[in-house]
Amino acid sequence: MDSGSYTTGVERNALEASIDAARSALLNYRRDDGHWVFELEADCTIPAEYVLLRHYLGEPVDAELEAKIAVYLRRIQGAHGGWPLVHDGDFDMSASVKGYFALKMIGDSIDAPHMVRAREAIRSRGGAIHSNVFTRFLLTLYGVTTWRAVPVLPVEIMLLPSWSPFTLTKISYWARTTMVPLLVLCALKPRAKNPKGVDIDELFLQDPKTIGMPVKAPHQNWALFKLFGSIDAVLRVIEPVMPKSIRKRAIDKALAFIEERLNGEDGMGAIFPPMANAVMMYEALGYPEDYPPRASQRRGIDLLLVDRGDEAYCQPCVSPVWDTALASHAVLEADGHEGAKSVRPALDWLLPRQVLDLKGDWAVKAPNVRPGGWAFQYNNAHYPDLDDTAVVVMALDRARKDQPNPAYDAAIARAREWIEGMQSDDGGWGAFDINNTEYYLNNIPFSDHGAMLDPPTEDVTARCVSMLAQLGETMDSSPALARALGYLRDTQLAEGSWYGRWGMNYIYGTWSVLCALNAAGVPHADPMIRKAVAWLESVQNRDGGWGEDAVSYRLDYRGYESAPSTASQTAWALLALMAAGEVDHPAVARGIEYLKSTQTEKGLWDEQRYTATGFPRVFYLRYHGYSKFFPLWALARYRNLQATNSKVVGVGM
């Protein structure tokens, strides 16, 4: 298909048929109240931790559910014998240890072929001693290892003044909510009930009780790591003799922090790790199962389960606001002037979920900013995020152009006020916090994952620029937008791409930024845009699609890492190129043909690969909705631009 073939009736009809099928399929997933929510799948660690949590608490065995989770865990075991972080990914030690532990807890024989392969894979790589800190805490709570194997986390951290080098306000929302209940667990040092008495000593090459602190992680600075290691050694001496009155005050403060943020059945932080830690904390404090805060967290964890009949797994969280906003954009694109009517139920579902009356943790560094954002999940009022908010605003703004609505106007104004107030000093935006840039904290022993912080990133910054520009701001009228464009210009990489923090990776980042630059009026002839276009063209796969592997997040930066084409990554590349004015580029024609040729009879796309990111190098995500709305969005955008004379994308994304 060449760039001019769209003009033929046959090609137009084929494209329309593809769009209609994808649109119908997407609308079929919409819930009765107007919103979308798709499965959100991570690696084996969350379902494994779910199983281990039940046995930690000594809950009655649900043999049917455990059998289904076991089927899932066995299915995603890698050819290398262990468990990867992504589909067909490399061996990961911590995931493999948890996957093996969960299956053994469920009742799989250690002599079963898949267990033998897993054990050999773990031992051949030095054994479970090489697990990360989070896994070590789990093993310590189970008594497999001792408290010498994990960093000291004194609950007295709760009492530190704001000027202290380490306070809760200096770390990210996910680290904050995960760590506070863990601080209480570290103070009480409880032991799993583990009624079956299962251990995994066979995964170690040494007596696990002799294991000491983890070694320096690759991202950590030697000098800072040694400094923090020395502090840990001092705390290890002081912590056991801490005055009981101070400890009680710290635990009480931790409990107050948690109970203010429990969020009902949506859970502490609305993500699995803090919810699980909170349940274990209440158990350690002696609260019964029916104590309302404990019970709500435990019910919330079960709400994360996905039961497919023959197998089951536990999600890390749910993504209804994100899914609904993005799906709305796809339908708006597909339905043109009728789009506002089509997505009205979805946008009306989103509207009351705007957080207007609660100042969350973000307000510590932005006390004079009024709340106005949306959270990612059904309810998570303490932790709205900039990315969701910008995407929701752009959908509301698109809809109100065809169907004016005063309620949309008010919501957009408050959200814009909040986003402008959350811009960091360097001109960028982070996901949940402002100026969360205390980078030295990634060198503490607890931070071997390197994900303690939520600093500004290119993709979130681009989304905020897109929103401001779509609302009519320009570089001349908006100092915030001008500063953000300077940030984006400074962060372009040598080959022309931009880093993608929340999507995989350089394709996602480059899509985000090119949409923003176009919306902000940066000329398509600007060298920054030309370089990005040339880069996207250079990484197109031979089949016409685009794909990128999680390995591209490696610390020793080597840029984009090729992977088989996926529908979602292909759609991002196409939307990026079209935003840059390249609707007639041969690469776009090939990409459109790839999407059409790989569409299933149901109007959808099969996508097993993970294309989203929780924490680079540590935790990845497979949004099951991405392959349903992004390809539709790209196909409809292509059709719409081909039908106009200007061929310029007139919206923020």
Automatic annotation (TrEMBL):
Domain Squalene cyclase N-terminal: 19-308
Squalene cyclase C-terminal domain ranges (all copies): 318-640
GO BP annotations listed: triterpenoid biosynthetic process
UniProt keywords, alphabetically: Isomerase, Repeat
CDD domains: SQCY_1
EC number(s) per entry: 5.4.99.17, 5.4.99.7
GO cellular component: lipid droplet
Keyword presence, Transmembrane: no
InterPro entries the UniProt entry points to: Hopene-cyclase, SQ_cyclase_C, SQ_cyclase_N, Squalene_cyclase, Terpene_synthase_CS, Terpenoid_cyclase/PrenylTrfase
Name of the top EC class for this enzyme: isomerase
Pathway(s) of this molecule: Secondary metabolite biosynthesis; hopanoid biosynthesis
Record-linked Gene3D superfamilies: 1.50.10.20
Family: Belongs to the terpene cyclase/mutase family.
NCBIfam families for this protein: hopene_cyclase, squalene_cyclas
Name by which UniProt lists this protein: Squalene--hopene cyclase
Lineage per the UniProt record: Bacteria, Pseudomonadati, Pseudomonadota, Alphaproteobacteria, Hyphomicrobiales
